[in-house]
Write a structure and sequence with these properties.
Blueprint lengths: L1 H21 L13 H36 L4 E4 L2 H6 L6 E5 L5 E7 L1 H12 L7 H17 L5 H9 L2 H7 L4 H15 L34
Parallel strand pairs: 1-3
Antiparallel strand pairs: 2-3
């Protein structure tokens, strides 16, 4: 919506300038001054209105690129808009839609707050991510696992905790900071997840252990 508003404002600035060009003199033949104030104000408002949309598009491209690596196929990530957030009453932090044949649509939606936390994480030095940032990075990983075809929540969640460090690196973290983020989620957040998201099989040496080098229990002795 903001993008269309920005286009309308820019169009208004052009219309004002064109109107002046077509009638550069008044009825008495006197030169009319160029409407600098109107054109500048409309142009400034257009730029200010367009900036959030441009920033969101850039973020979606970066998140989509990371999700594509994790999913092993080209996929997209969409950040929830303000309008969508106002109308949204769901508790989930992100979701992937599934087709009737049981395959996922090639895109995931990440809720507005989570996209804000992801943007903050990308801008940060990655050394001490907040809990919100840790969760947001994991949400991206979790939805990427759905995009890879993992339907069940417990399976997607366990696959995600074993790839959170990879996601963090894709978003600019160094190896140590990435491993720390993954360990933080595994230690502090995973045990608090609702039952459908947890499994006793998700552990070192368990049936869900995929043997990845990024498994959080490798960085969390005693887990």
């Amino acid at each position: 919506m903001l993008t269309w508003f920005a286009v309308a404002l820019a169009g208004g600035a052009v219309a004002v300038a064109v109107g002046w060009w077509r009638r550069r003199a008044d009825e008495l033949g006197r030169p009319r001054r160029f409407p600098w104030v109107s054109v500048v104000v409309l142009s400034a408002l257009a730029v200010a209105t367009a900036v959030p949309g441009v920033a969101r598009a850039a973020q979606e491209r970066r998140l989509g690129a990371a999700a594509s690596v994790l999913a092993g196929a080209p996929v997209a990530v969409r950040c929830q808009s303000l309008g969508q957030a106002v109308l949204d009453g769901g508790p989930e932090l992100g979701y992937v839609r599934w087709r009737a044949d049981g395959t996922p649509e090639p895109w995931a939606l990440i809720k507005r707050d989570q996209c804000h936390h992801l943007a903050a994480y990308v801008r940060s030095d990655k050394h001490e991510p907040t809990r919100d940032q840790v969760v947001a990075v994991h949400v991206l990983t979790h939805e990427a696992m759905h995009l890879a075809g993992r339907l069940g929540e417990a399976g997607a969640e366990c696959a995600a905790v074993q790839r959170d460090a990879h996601t963090a690196r894709l978003l600019g973290a160094g190896p140590a900071d990435a491993a720390g983020l993954a360990a933080s989620y595994w230690r502090d957040v995973y045990p608090l997840m609702p039952g459908p998201y947890r499994s006793e099989d998700c552990r070192a040496g368990g049936p869900m252990d995929e043997g990845t080098a990024d498994a959080p229990w490798l960085a969390s002795p005693g887990s």
